[in-house]
Each structure stands twice: as C-alpha cells, then as structure tokens.
Amino acid sequence: GISQLWIEQGLEMGRPSRIRLELNVDGGKLAAARIGGHAIKVAEGRLFV
Predict the structure, then answer these.
(1) DSSP secondary structure string for all residues of the chain
(2) What is the pLDDT of residue 38?
(3) Which of 39, 33, 41, 42 is nearest to 18 (CA)?
(4) Residue-wise pLDDT tens for the chain (49 aa)?
(5) Fewer CB atoms inside 10 A, N or C side of the chain?
C-alpha cells in the first residue's frame, strides 16, 4: 500500500520547510518512493571532481 509522510525541518535556523515523502510497499518490500516539495534557491555552486 501507499503511505504518505510529511517531514519538517529547518525551523530553528529560520528556514522552515515541509517535505512530502510517499512510499509504496508491496509484499513487505519497498516498491517505490517519491519525495517532493517547494523550493527557493538560496545558494548555488559547482563541484569539480
């Protein structure tokens, strides 16, 4: 079945966010996971490997 969770973070640092997590479990095993929410760009960078 499908379960939905809301995760809250960033409250103490003044940048609260709510993240939605949806899990689909079939036969006791994780079949799919989706994560989402709204975002505001606060920084940008590049990583060279």
Answers:
(1) -EEEEEEEE-TTTT--EEEEEEEEEETTEEEEEEEE-------------
(2) 86
(3) 39
(4) 999 999 999 989 988 899 999 999 999 999 999 999 988 888 999 999 9
(5) C
Distance in angstroms (rounded) separating the CA atoms of residues 21 and 37: 9
Q: Which two tokens stand for residue 37?
A: 């929410």
Radius of gyration of the chain (CA): 15
Name which of 2, 46, 45 is nearest 23 in CA terms: 2
Q: Which domain holds residue 30?
A: 2-36
- Supply the pLDDT for residue 1: 95
The two structure tokens encoding residue 48? 């060279």
